[in-house]
Design goal:
about 150 residues; Immunoglobulin-like; about 10% helix; disordered C terminus; PCuAC_sf
Length: about 150
């Protein structure tokens, strides 16, 4: 009986429908009061075959989109992407300056240390709820200007 049960679980675990997604270092940028948008960053690894991140929905956020930054003609442009490819075994990093979750229409400004819960939807893996920690991230060099 135990051997049959083990065999059943082995088949279940190797099923392509049960893609395993590992999410690490999920965090969002703390913003000044009154700023309605922020960005979410994380590392995603699909361990059971290729997958795609298709969408994200976060509590207290009107609209969450997946974006990338493109560098064209000396300008940096933000563009939405329909899906983020997750090749098997590769840690895909959503980080400042590249792919990220754009959280638009925050109901309230999240405080540093607070947590924000998001549902991530994948092409194959089941929906996963991920808790993002609000962090005070240093702005990139070109986002602050010194006036004399």
């Amino acid at each position: 009986m135990l051997k049959q049960l083990f065999g059943f679980f082995a088949v279940l675990l190797s099923s392509p429908l049960m893609a395993q997604i590992l999410v690490e270092d999920a965090h969002v940028r703390a913003m000044p009061p009154g700023v309605p948008n922020t960005a979410g960053y994380l590392q995603i690894t699909s361990s059971e075959g290729d997958d795609q991140l298709l969408a994200a929905r976060c509590e207290g956020v009107e609209n969450t989109e997946m974006h990338t930054l493109l560098h064209e003609d000396g300008l940096t442009k933000m563009r939405p992407v329909a899906a983020i490819e997750l090749p098997q075994g590769v840690a895909v990093i959503l980080a400042q300056g590249g792919l990220h979750l754009m959280m638009m229409g925050l109901e309230a400004t999240p405080e540093v240390g607070a947590q924000l819960s998001c549902e991530l939807r994948f092409a194959k893996a089941p929906v996963q709820t991920v808790v993002f920690e609000v962090r005070d991230l240093k702005p990139s060099e070109h986002s602050h200007h010194h006036h004399h």
